[in-house]
Amino acid sequence: MSEQVLHYPIPNEAALEPPAEWAELRGGCPVARVTLPSGDQATLLTRYEDVKKVLADPRFTRLLNAPDAARLSATDDGGLFNSEMAAIIPDGGEGHQHWRRLVGKWFTAKRMTAMRPRMARIADTLVDELVERGAPADLKAGLGFPLPVYVICDMLGVPAADRDRFSYWSDTLLNLTRYGKEEIEAAQAEFFQYMSGHLAAKRAEPGDDLLSELIAAGGPEDGGLEDLQILVTGMALLVAGHETTANMIGKMVAMLLSDRSRWEALLADPSLIRTTVEESLRFDADSGFGLPRYLREETEVSGTYLPKGTTVVCSMAAANRDESVFADADRMDLTRSPNPHLAFGSGAHSCLGQALARTELQVVLEVLLRRLPTLELAVPVEELERVEGLAVGGLRTVPVRW
């Protein structure tokens, strides 16, 4: 394995199973050289301790627009991960922590508890529409895709009429191969223009939403953010919070229905919903690209020397199958606790919206178990197809009946 330079992402036919190479890499070559879609080379990490350590290490930065950083895809110079807009939010240090403190107030457990009834109403309405259209239905298109964007639009005070445009922008900006550079840049410009107008409207007429609250905090001289930072924060929350959760809803339900005993266990004991969501996040074999990091100074990982300028890709999904941390790692255990998975990253840059994602996933399960207890996959699990090209992994469709 160590002699060969793998192509990354590692192709895999089975929609819900991990590629065999993960276990081989963790066992024999945990710091591996890989070729990215752009043709550039990077270093792939697959062991739990290595991934966790690197994600928490400030020497590994998100400076992916450095001249010697690897380009992630062939169509652009890194897209979402290293766009000029990504640089507007401070990358590290006190500036980043200050931004997280201001924005993080909207992602507390208390705030999520307050939002839960609204999320449940959205999910119930979407299930109503699913049932009305009849089975078989695509759970991803009917529930997984719209629910997170409706919730994010609510948080940003965006009118319901604009939700579909938000869905399109989110999809375009997170896709590494499906869209060309011109289409991605056009979507980014449209999104930017929309958010500029939306922010101006919020300044004139504040509401009970995240953007209004960030405006009310004042500018940098008052301990708040610049207008451009507020605008980019709104864009970042949509892109980070929509497609990831939309895909995870589909994958989670597919995982649970692929072995009927899992769904039956939840029906018999809904108190398992919380640990089931955590285990679905850990067990996800198709979480996408992983987190890229750029090394500003030479260092070593697991005894391997990495020169300055190395681009490292942390595969949280491979790390989450590490037997040294998770007993029986290749078995989905709905009661697993504790479950220190790395699905949301680790350290100072761990996912700001993880409480939101967890709440959405829990609510979806609560509503589906209550409304559609006879839910099942409408196709054999072997026929489920992965979506190629997304920075976050997903299934093309999740056909279900009830």
TrEMBL record:
Signal peptide: none annotated. It holds the Pfam family p450. It comes from the Bacteria. Its cofactor is heme. CDD domains: Cyp158A-like. Keywords: Heme, Iron, Metal-binding, Monooxygenase, Oxidoreductase. InterPro entries: Cyt_P450, Cyt_P450_B, Cyt_P450_CS, Cyt_P450_sf. GO terms for molecular function: heme binding; iron ion binding; monooxygenase activity; oxidoreductase activity, acting on paired donors, with incorporation or reduction of molecular oxygen. PANTHER family: CYTOCHROME P450 BJ-1, P450, PUTATIVE (EUROFUNG)-RELATED. Belongs to the cytochrome P450 family. This is Cytochrome P450. It comes from Nonomuraea pusilla.
